[in-house]
Design goal:
The complex is a heterodimer of chains A (693) and B (472). Chain A has 693 residues and is mostly helical. Among the domains of chain A are: 102 residues, no CATH class; 77 residues, no CATH class. Helices cover 52% and strands 4% of the residues of chain A. Chain A has a two-stranded antiparallel sheet. In chain A, strands 3-4 form a two-stranded antiparallel sheet. By secondary structure, chain B is an alpha/beta fold. Chain B folds into 2 domains: 90 residues, no CATH class; 351 residues, Alkaline Phosphatase, subunit A (3-Layer(aba) Sandwich). Chain B has 13 helices and 17 strands. In chain B, the strands form 5 sheets. In chain B, strands 1, 4, 5, 6, 7, 8, 11, 12 and 15 form a 9-stranded mixed sheet that branches. A two-stranded antiparallel sheet of chain B has the order 2-3. In chain B, α1 packs antiparallel against α8 and α11 runs parallel beside α12. The N terminus of chain B is likely disordered. The chains are: A mainly alpha (693), B alpha/beta (472).
């Protein structure tokens, strides 16, 4: 009876494996407990208490406070993405009040450019692209603009998340635009219904939960407690959704639409008819020619009276149809040179016309489809759509047992997501805010709070910030204010030899923030800064994107695909069109050069490379060249010394050191104009110009 | 170098010492743009000094190029036996199919070279250098979709974030070239279905930024912003850069930040590239015979052929790792037409590169690798007709060739089953390939490591063995 024993042993082993399989206890899934602030009395801002405690525990020495001008430049670049103007520098230096810095912070948080700056951060996290084969490309910029406005209005973060995931249900009609986050995924020709669900699971879990739920598409997550069922349960929340086009046109535009379309269609038909006249004589000939290549039984099927064809015949016809149908390429092979020339000339007109269909302004949002809502939801074995697995009911990873789905399925998920008790929602968000202020998050893997992600460097501080975020009603501006007014944020970034030797062994990488971290500015901020110091930046907000200088007008940002683009290329970098395409380049070389992502997938943290082609852009690029000429003209002053000072103040927000002043003056010499141009060039090429100070 | 000496050298330069010499001294003294490599490397005498990696992006079909399966003709249209497929996963693209009709290659194969290497009629030029190349028919990989599969080939790991092979090599071995980056990348566009190819594929991951690949553009102007603005001479630019370096170094002294130091060195590299790149890309002195060898495309900037020629010119200048990506091999449908077009663009220049290196005596110390990120299925994706078929992604076996420094030419290595579905002999995985490339460069792949976040990382992760059978 050995087989029975073997079976019994197998069952026992299975049961044992089931019981002892350790369920990973992820730190990030433990409840947020508001920690006691260590030595609170000695610190004005609790952030500093947590950071100092860690610095002390590691035996590190902290840098002193940053100078006033460094701090002003830092907070300007951070909160608005633009360097301070000389007037702003003067005003700050002249303000002796102890709260001068806090006043600057308030002014910057109220500046509409703050929303522009932080929208760019969030759009990386949410995966914005102007072009990516999406069906809703033509109006997608409304989503970008919604994010800018939401941040400027300080929309509470729970509402921000709700609108992004279910803006179509919001009482505020504007929130429809937030669903660009969902419809972004509806790429044609892949079926948009499934695409929305798949992408929603992956993008929502990475953006708002920092969990790689996407890994559970084909099998249970290898590391984190996320089952494949969880994945498809979460997908079931979005399965009822279909992309839905909403016209943004006026009544007159809509009424006139039919006539406009009819004209457009008629013009195409007329052109096609002219082409047919040329190709008609060849059609029959090509068909007969191709018949000679085919097996006799296939030819026989083609020769049959169409009415007499059997199902099997029709299958044969279908198989060989592509072989016998001539296309434009084939016609070109057989037509005379003269005919080909005429044919091509006419065809060009058709291509042009089709490229520019008369589109009404519209935005693609989502709607709940009753049939899909009533349908069953299934898991796909191995992530394979052909292999429908077990049925799943709506749910989501880490869901409590007693979730009740009433009304729209997304509501129950959003209630759980944004609840103060959710251990991930606030933690993940404050970690991002921290990252944008300091370059790295307290958790260095902002998109992965799972087992394969990094552990927080300051777990208590992360929890305290998360608790505070809830306490402050998810106000992002309140958190920005709290963070940038801390001493930690205001520390100097300079590392003296003494500091370096004291800290090298324990924390050379500055993980524990004994100084403020220096880092290269991102793509948009470099470009915005160059234009801004030249006085050439158009800071108007919202609207269609503009085309990067090397992006082909026709191919990429054509009217048919994205709506008419903006012609003002001196706008802020957030408006520079970007995106992905399998076969052609949609990313301006500039953005790629400085590590901006194409938005095809969500990006939790950009690379920050420093390369020779980047410096060539600032050395020789026409944008940098023109900007330095403008900057040289802008810094007119009574005498060379003053002019040098004004140059430093404009570009770098500070006065030159005596050594720098002397160096500049000796370089400028007799003050020929090209020397001043060179001086301006040098200012925007200094490392200091492209680094967070 | 101190302020004074930098400045005074410049003055000397304008006074007659000779601008180039001064620039060289300045460059070498203050911020040498080239990296000398790690002490102790190479670990042993290298066979190859540099690598030219011809990445065929999109995954060429082994069945139509290298892996000859004459018996398949008899099975044309027959469903792929379940015993072969063994329930292996398929991509989302063919998973819908209910039938998996066997699609033998419609292309003729013949044996070439002293080793009798099987090659299809699509590779007439490669056939002429068959004696130089080793075809590996038993490659396999873990990834089934393009991006993770390319990431795996580039970094030894399917998830993004680790250093690419070129940056490992330039980190370990440094550069033999002062005025060009140690790791240069070209991307050319094929005529077929192309997949996204992210710039991070040649990133340096956690290695310092200066080791990342520098991508040259597919254009007459392969590096943007190379020319000085009108009215600026190289001499004027040199002077600006010297002033700039001085000011930057004043600031660097405050922050002591390695990235700022990297940036200063990149100005030197940029300056060097201003003079080196125009010379590199000026093909006017190449004789007619060279263009004939590489084919007419080699006169068209940005093509694969032009890039192959540039690769040879970079190799001559001592660039350590040169990587070409040619896109468009993703023939899910219309494969016969698609692969023919791809081969028309790639066969002649790839073979010309081998022959050209050989003529110059450089093939002995240049390792050339040709291959994609996975293979393609024996069954047709979409309908199989008399003249047409498509092939889906197939990671379980595929072919790749190597040639030059350290590699035994004329070799066919490994084999697959009758359906080119599974490896049957001498399997080579991606880590093994990496280990072998490193070996040819004189590097023990287990000893080139970098400590990051508390762990020692290496290109081959915890795997990889040198494929001894490939070595000369």
């Amino acid at each position: 009876m050995t087989w029975r024993i073997a079976v019994a042993a197998t069952i026992a082993a299975a049961a044992f494996a089931e019981e002892t399989k350790p369920r990973p206890r992820l730190w990030s899934l433990q409840p947020v407990a508001r920690p006691v602030v260590p030595g609170a009395a000695t610190h004005r801002n609790p952030i500093d208490a947590f950071v100092s405690a860690r610095i002390g525990a590691k035996g590190l020495r902290a840098a002193g406070p940053a100078g006033k001008t460094t701090l002003l430049r830092r907070v300007h670049l951070d909160l608005t993405g633009l360097p301070p103007t000389p007037a702003e520098v003067d005003a700050f230096l002249a303000d002796p009040n102890p709260d001068a810095y806090e006043k600057v912070v308030d002014r910057l948080l109220d500046d509409p450019q703050h929303g522009v700056r932080y929208a760019r951060h969030w759009l990386d996290v949410l995966g914005y692209a102007d072009v990516d084969g999406m069906i809703g490309e033509a109006g997608i910029h409304h989503w970008r603009d919604w994010v800018i406005q939401a941040l400027n209005r300080d929309m509470p973060f729970d509402q921000f998340a709700r609108a992004s995931i279910a803006g179509d249900l919001s009482a505020n009609p504007e929130d429809m635009f937030a669903t660009g986050f969902l419809t972004r995924a509806a790429r044609s020709p892949a079926d948009p219904q499934e695409a929305i669900g798949f992408a929603a699971v992956e993008n929502i879990s990475s953006a708002f939960l920092a969990m790689t739920v996407g890994c559970a598409k084909c099998h249970d997550h290898k590391y984190d407690p996320i089952s494949q069922r969880d994945y498809y349960a979460m997908k079931a929340l979005f399965d009822p959704l279909l992309p839905d086009k909403r016209l943004l046109a006026s009544a007159d535009e809509i009424l006139g639409r039919q006539a406009v379309l009819a004209t457009w269609k008629a013009s195409q038909d007329a052109i096609q008819a002219r082409m047919d006249v040329i190709t008609k004589p060849y059609e029959k000939r090509i068909f007969e020619e191709r018949m000679t290549f085919l097996p006799p039984d296939v030819v026989a099927v083609f020769r049959k009276d169409p009415a007499a064809r059997t199902d099997a015949d029709r299958k044969v016809i279908k198989d060989y149809e592509t072989v016998v149908t001539p296309d434009a390429r084939k016609f070109r092979d057989v037509m005379t040179a003269d005919e080909t020339a005429r044919y091509e000339a006419i065809r060009k007109g058709l291509t042009e016309l089709r490229r520019d269909p008369p589109e009404l302004p519209a935005f693609w949002t989502v709607r709940v489809d009753p049939a899909r809502l009533a349908g069953k939801n299934h898991l796909y074995e191995g992530g394979d759509r052909a292999k429908k697995g077990e049925e799943v009911t709506p749910g989501f990873p880490f869901a409590p047992k007693d979730v009740v789905f009433k009304g729209d399925r997304r509501q129950a998920f959003l209630d759980w997501l944004t609840a103060p008790a959710n251990p991930l929602f606030a933690r993940v968000a404050v970690n991002r805010l921290w990252q944008w202020h300091f370059g790295e998050g307290l958790v260095a893997t902002p998109g992965d709070f799972g087992l394969m992600g990094q552990r927080p460097t300051h777990p208590e501080l992360l929890d305290w910030l998360a608790a505070e975020f809830v306490e402050r009603k998810y106000s992002m501006k309140a958190m920005h204010r709290l963070i940038v007014t801390s001493d930690t944020y205001r520390r100097s970034s300079a590392a003296t030899p003494e500091l370096l030797s004291a800290n090298r062994a324990a924390d050379a990488a500055n993980k524990y923030l004994w100084k403020y971290p220096v880092r290269r500015l991102d793509a948009e901020t470099v470009r915005d800064s160059v234009l801004h110091v030249a006085g050439a930046l158009d800071t108007s907000i919202g609207g269609r994107s503009f085309r990067g200088e090397d992006i082909m007008e026709r191919r990429v940002m054509s009217a048919a695909r994205t709506g008419h683009y903006d012609t003002r290329s001196n706008r802020r970098g957030i408006y520079m069109g970007r995106g992905a395409d399998a076969s052609m380049n949609m990313m301006p070389a500039y953005l790629t050069l400085f590590d901006a992502e194409d938005g095809h997938v969500t990006c939790a943290r950009r690379e920050r490379t420093v390369t020779a082609p980047q410096v060539l852009f600032l050395m020789n690029g026409s944008l940098a060249r023109e900007a330095s000429l403008k900057l040289a003209k802008r810094i007119e002053a009574r005498d060379p010394a003053e002019r040098v000072e004004l140059g430093y103040k404009t570009a770098l927000g500070r006065l030159p050191s005596p050594a720098e002043r002397d160096h500049a003056l000796s370089y400028i010499g007799d003050g020929r104009p090209e020397r001043w141009d060179g001086f301006a060039w040098m200012l925007i090429n200094l490392s200091e110009f492209v680094f967070h100070p | 170098m101190t302020d004074i000496s930098r400045r005074s050298l410049f003055n000397l330069a304008t006074g007659g010492l000779g601008f180039t010499a001064a620039a060289h001294l300045l460059g070498a003294g203050a911020n040498p743009p080239a990296h000398v490599g790690l002490p102790g490397l190479p670990h042993f005498a290298p066979k190859a000094k540099r690598v030219i990696y011809l990445f065929q992006h999109g995954a060429p079909s082994q069945l139509d190029l290298f892996d000859h399966k004459p018996d398949l003709a008899k099975l044309r249209g027959a469903d792929l036996p379940a015993s072969i497929r063994m329930g292996q996963r398929l991509t989302g693209m063919t998973a819908y199919q209910t039938k998996f009709p066997t699609a033998p290659s419609i292309f003729r194969f013949a044996r070439h070279g002293p080793g009798g290497t099987w090659l299809s009629e699509l590779l007439p030029h490669t056939a002429k250098v068959a004696g130089e190349i080793a075809v590996i028919r038993s490659m396999h990989t873990e990834a089934i979709n393009h991006d993770p599969a390319v990431t795996f080939f580039q970094t030894g790991f399917q998830l993004a974030g680790r250093p690419s092979i070129g940056s490992w090599v330039s980190y370990g071995l440094g550069s033999d070239c002062q005025d060009l980056p140690a790791f240069v990348v070209f991307v050319s566009q094929g005529k077929g279905n192309s997949q996204a190819l992210a710039d991070r594929q040649w990133g340096s991951g956690f290695l310092p930024g200066k080791f990342q690949g520098v991508k040259f553009r597919a254009a007459a102007d392969p590096v943007l912003y190379l020319s000085n603005p009108e009215g600026y001479s190289a001499q004027a630019r040199r002077r600006y850069l010297d002033d700039l370096a001085k000011l930057n170094e004043l600031k660097l002294a405050d922050t002591q930040d390695p990235e700022i130091a990297t940036r200063i060195s990149q100005y030197e590299m940029a300056f060097q590239m201003q003079s080196s790149v125009p010379g590199l890309t000026d093909l006017s002195k190449e004789p007619e015979s060279v263009f004939d060898m590489y084919g007419p495309d080699s006169r068209v900037p940005g093509t694969y052929a032009a890039n192959c020629l540039l690769a040879r010119r970079l190799a001559e200048r001592g660039v350590r790792f040169i990587q070409l990506f040619h896109r468009g091999w993703d023939q899910h449908s219309g494969l016969p037409r698609g692969i023919r077009l791809q081969c028309e663009q790639t066969d002649q220049p790839s073979a010309a590169l081998i022959q050209d290196l050989k003529n110059r005596g450089m093939l002995d110390d240049t390792l050339v690798v040709w291959g994609g990120e996975f293979g393609r299925t024996v069954y047709s994706q979409g309908e199989l007709t008399a003249t047409d078929y498509g092939r889906d992604h197939h990671p379980r076996c595929f072919s790749l060739w190597m040639a030059g420094g350290g590699i035994r030419g004329g070799l066919t290595y490994g084999s697959t089953d009758d359906f080119s579905y599974n490896v049957t002999e001498d399997a080579v995985d991606v880590h093994d390939l990496h280990a072998t490339i490193m070996h040819c460069l004189g590097v023990d792949h287990t000893r080139l490591t970098f400590k990051f976040q508390g762990r020692h990382y290496r290109l081959t992760d915890v795997k990889g063995s040198v494929v001894k059978g490939l070595l000369a």
